[in-house]
């Protein structure tokens, strides 16, 4: 068993060494976690906790620096727990960080890979873009957000992509329209061998429906509800190909054309 295949490495009191505010609700944190930084591969995630009674929050690793012993997390403040994490400053510590969890992304030379991310989904998409490019693929990235201030990590994405399309709902940056408009532009103009999509479940559902029409194999990274991260609680269960799967240990990436997105969306409702 490879080192990166072990389920979880717990590190306590992980110090934050850098913080950047992407927008009012989205924060980038660089956190000390040397063991995780060395073992992490594209697609892996961690579960973090802020405070002894804090909620366990799954976050995909956006970047890692094995030399410095750090990992990068991008957090969107949507509830009390994520707001507490986003309020931390350099010098503060997360109570614990466990990972890397999940299965790494399948990286190989496919040909042309279409990578599409929505909102904070661009953060976990970035290491996949980099890995796909390093494997010799032509990488076309489509980034989407409601407005310009919600387009994150554009420079980093451009550095590892052959082409980048920006879509905003309000037309404040790039082209106006949903992510599927940009995705279909690519599918119409060139052959695509594989697609990877990360973002809100509703976005991934419609990207999947579109790529299925064009017969493009597609992987979707799911951000399901999680508690323990080891497959014991069953909170992250999804239906893929008619079978129950557990995102924390069998994912987070699955064949998008086999995912029951309607069930997933129902389970994600507040």
Descriptive key words:
single chain; 270 residues; alpha/beta; Elongation Factor Tu (Ef-tu), domain 3; Rossmann fold; 2 domains; seven-stranded antiparallel β-sheet; seven-stranded mixed β-sheet; 8 helices; 25% helix; disordered N terminus
Summarize the structure.
By secondary structure, the chain is of the alpha/beta class. It is built from eight helices and 16 strands.
Number of strands: 16
Secondary-structure arrangement, i.e. CATH architecture of the largest domain: 3-Layer(aba) Sandwich
Low-pLDDT segments, ≥5 res = 1-11
The shape, in one word, is globular
Return the CATH class of the largest domain: Alpha Beta
H/E element order: EEHEEEEHEEHEHEEHEHEEEHEH
Averaged pLDDT: 89
The CATH homology group name of the largest domain: Nucleotide-binding domain of ferredoxin-NADP reductase (FNR) module
Question: What structural class do the secondary elements suggest?
Answer: alpha/beta
Order of strands, main sheet, comes to: 4-3-7-1-2-6-5
Strand content is 25-35%
């Amino acid at each position: 068993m490879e080192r990166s295949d072990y389920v979880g490495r717990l590190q306590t009191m992980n110090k934050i060494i850098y913080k950047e505010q992407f927008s009012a609700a989205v924060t980038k944190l660089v956190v000390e976690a040397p063991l995780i930084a060395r073992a992490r591969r594209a697609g892996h995630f961690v579960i973090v906790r802020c405070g002894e009674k804090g909620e366990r929050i799954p976050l995909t690793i956006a970047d890692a620096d094995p030399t410095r012993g750090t990992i990068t997390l991008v957090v969107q403040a949507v509830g009390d727990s994520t707001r507490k994490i986003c309020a931390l400053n350099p010098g503060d510590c997360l109570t614990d960080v466990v990972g890397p969890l999940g299965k790494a992304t399948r990286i190989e030379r496919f040909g042309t890979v279409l990578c599409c991310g929505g909102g904070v989904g661009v953060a976990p998409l970035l290491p996949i873009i980099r890995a796909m490019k390093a494997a010799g693929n032509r990488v076309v990235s489509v980034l989407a957000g409601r407005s310009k201030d919600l387009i994150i990590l554009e420079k980093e994405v451009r550095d590892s992509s052959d082409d980048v399309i920006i879509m905003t709902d309000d037309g404040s940056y790039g082209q106006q329209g949903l992510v599927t408009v940009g995705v279909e532009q690519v599918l119409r103009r060139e052959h695509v061998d594989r697609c990877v999509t990360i973002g809100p479940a509703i976005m991934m559902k419609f990207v999947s429906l579109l790529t299925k029409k064009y017969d493009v194999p597609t992987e979707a990274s799911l951000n399901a509800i999680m508690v323990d991260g080891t497959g014991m609680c069953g909170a992250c269960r999804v239906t893929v190909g008619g079978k129950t799967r557990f995102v924390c240990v069998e994912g987070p990436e699955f064949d998008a054309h086999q995912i029951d997105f309607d069930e997933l969306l129902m389970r994600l409702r507040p």
